Amino acid sequence: MPKAALGSEQSRELQGKQKFYYGSNIMDSPYKVCRIPNKGEGLVATTDIARGQLILSEEPIFQYTDPRFNDRAEAFRRYNKLDRPKQKKVWKLFDVTGNRNRSEDLELVMQTNGIRLRDLMYGLFEIACRINHSCRPNTHSSWDPVKETIEIYATKNILQGEEITSTYIGNLARYALRRVCLKHIFKFTCRCWLCTLPEEDREMSDLRIQEINDLLKQEISMLGQIRELLQLYDLESIVGWQPVEAYKGAWLLASRSGYKTRARIFAERGAKLCAEIEGFDGVDTVEWRKRVMDCGDEDEEMPEDEEGFEEWLFGELEVKENVNGWGDKKVKEKIDGPGQPEAKESDEGPGEPQVKKGDDGPEEPEVKENGDGPGESEVKESGDARGDRV
């Protein structure tokens, strides 16, 4: 396993080199929307933000079904039902062409800014769509189905003046593929701290990403596999749902094998990580807390030293006698790998694009559902609203 961690002092120094300019403050928010050199608009922290802190909770301007899998006219009908102030917000969002004369094309706005909410549903947001891309972002976004808001949490400590970033393509694609996809879909060359590492460090990163994807294709039957996966995530500075899913795999193996103490520890770690990316009252966080409660009393003595503790925690498991009717035999049931990668180099592309930067735009045009109406500002219902795939 390549050992040079991306969380090193060198990498942290690279992350802190960017400088930002004054922009418009958002009242009572830990960020401001401002101009960022070579990027257009973006979000910058106005105060130090702690890991796990809620940065933004925002309702969508409107929601729509992915036009690739549904009647394309549905998105236009939903847009036309918006009041004028909300329509203006849509047309202030940036589009991938960078051509101000074409920003009347609703499909380009959706292609550039659409954030997946659940299943095939996407949304456009006034603020969240202005968050710029990083291949190693410092936030995670999740959809709250109760409040119907997008919740954006810090996955790392963010310093005052540091840019707030998201990822458009997932974080499990290697360097060359990331560059191709971002250029093809979003029309820019990424210069985040990961992509600007020295070539040797970048190659080490690619090797780790390949190891992660190889592990995720396997059936997980040993805690040692999950420990290796978690170590790779840590070395690669990957935070978010992937480590949470890894701990879910560990919890499943331990609980199904009858090891209550280890199952509880894995559940506690999963609950802590989940709370950091979707809040203490998030749907998945609540489910994790239930898992902790369901683990019952301790049934093993735990080593006191840290190194010995981790060796014990991820040590080999055997099914205890009369656990779930299996008897005293090795675990036969295998579970799927803890989560699928967001980007696979053998697939069509590195995952769904998520958010793109915003910008000021012209006055909103009227959208014609049949594309036949007069005027220069019609929105035609042609083309793939999510863009081509690589």
UniProtKB/TrEMBL annotation:
<dbReference type="InterPro" id="IPR046341">
    <property type="entry name" value="SET_dom_sf"/>
</dbReference>
<dbReference type="Pfam" id="PF00856">
    <property type="entry name" value="SET"/>
</dbReference>
<feature type="domain" description="SET">
    <location>
        <begin position="29"/>
        <end position="169"/>
    </location>
</feature>
<feature type="region of interest" description="Disordered">
    <location>
        <begin position="325"/>
        <end position="390"/>
    </location>
</feature>
<feature type="compositionally biased region" description="Basic and acidic residues">
    <location>
        <begin position="325"/>
        <end position="347"/>
    </location>
</feature>
<protein>
    <recommendedName>
        <fullName>SET domain-containing protein</fullName>
    </recommendedName>
</protein>
<dbReference type="InterPro" id="IPR053185">
    <property type="entry name" value="SET_domain_protein"/>
</dbReference>
<feature type="compositionally biased region" description="Basic and acidic residues">
    <location>
        <begin position="354"/>
        <end position="390"/>
    </location>
</feature>
<dbReference type="InterPro" id="IPR001214">
    <property type="entry name" value="SET_dom"/>
</dbReference>
